[in-house]
Amino acid sequence: MLYNQYKYVNTIKEKIKCRTAIKPTKAKHVRHPKTMIIINDFIVEYNTKIGFYLIVSCETISCPCCSGILKPRGKVKRIVIEKPNEKLDEKRTYVLQRYICNKCKKCHRELPNFIVPYKRHCTDTIQTIITSTEKHPDVNYEEETVKRIRTWWTDVRPYIIGALLSIKEKYDIDFTYLDPSQNLAKIVRALVNANLWPCTRSVLLTDP
Ligand SMILES: [Zn+2]
Predict the structure, then answer these.
(1) How far is the CA of 65 from the centre of ligand 1 (A)?
(2) Residues 55, 112 contacting (CB under 8 angstroms)
(3) Global pTM?
């Protein structure tokens, strides 16, 4: 096969061209969805030199995929939009710990409970928007933000209720009595730490 391909190649330049053309392509690196853990017990340390907030965990959580032991593996930055007062949106950069599981070798990043995975706004902001029945919630948010978060919540809510039922059956822990919109931080922690948090909107729209 290779001989036939080289048969009509005369110059060195063409040979190189031909070799490049038939060189098997390397398999593309497949990026797996990021897995996370959520912690309730932590300290926030502000580093004045770099202007970042460092999250220091005070609790130990096992791997959400296999219950293996997690070992620290580097740190990552995460920007969160917070609302210190009614009129101000503040972007803060947090430095989060990454872990690797000693059993399944998956990496997990550790989020404090005021961060919802894959969302830019903090848990309080999201909860205020999804629980408000007003067209515009009490505090000032951009209309586009309110619309986007409410659409996300409409999509994610049925999945969350199903996932809470699955936790109840699998682990015999009952969160189904909680209203997800009123207890967002608790629900997010339960689902993330059970590896049940949906990673993309397309997952929610796909039939199980
Ligand atoms: Zn694991």
Answers:
(1) 5
(2) yes
(3) 0.76
